[in-house]
Amino acid sequence: EEFKVLDEHLVQVDARYPMEDLSDDLQLGIPESDDYDSVGGYVLDVLGTVPDPGTTFDAGGLHWTVTQVSGNRVQWVMLRSDDPWPDDVLVDAGLKEPPPRPAHDTFDEE
User: What is the per-residue pLDDT across 44-87, written as a single tens digit (0 to 9) for each?
Assistant: First the structure.
């Protein structure tokens, strides 16, 4: 999986995952840029260098940890948020029950 929600505050992301999709999925509000397309590109843009595994930084309201690097490529990143991820993300990950469906109102026709 390129994007795995581990719990309400922790996500593991393949660095090839599109940054725009990640920002949309997690409602991060990180602006698009011509400087990067992928999560790994974003990490390199923020840090300005190829990080070592275990490198951490804060950006976009999240705590980022680079968990795997191969050569000059970031491969995996862990994201931690102080606030829970959006409900739809948690529901899709099976970590939260979907909200109950509203009862359909029936109207008597006159």
Answer: 999 999 999 999 999 988 999 999 999 999 999 999 999 999 99
Look at phi and psi of residue 70 and say left if phi exceeds 0, alpha if psi is from -120 to 50, else beta: beta
CA separation for the pair 53, 71 (Å, rounded): 11
Regarding pTM above 0.70, the answer is yes
Helix (H) or strand (E) holding 59: strand 56-59
Q: How far apart are CA 64 and CA 37, in angstroms?
A: 17
Helical spans, DSSP H, in 26-84? 39-47
- Burial (0-12, 13-18, 19+ Cβ within 10 Å), 63: middle
Token pair recorded at residue 74: 């970031």
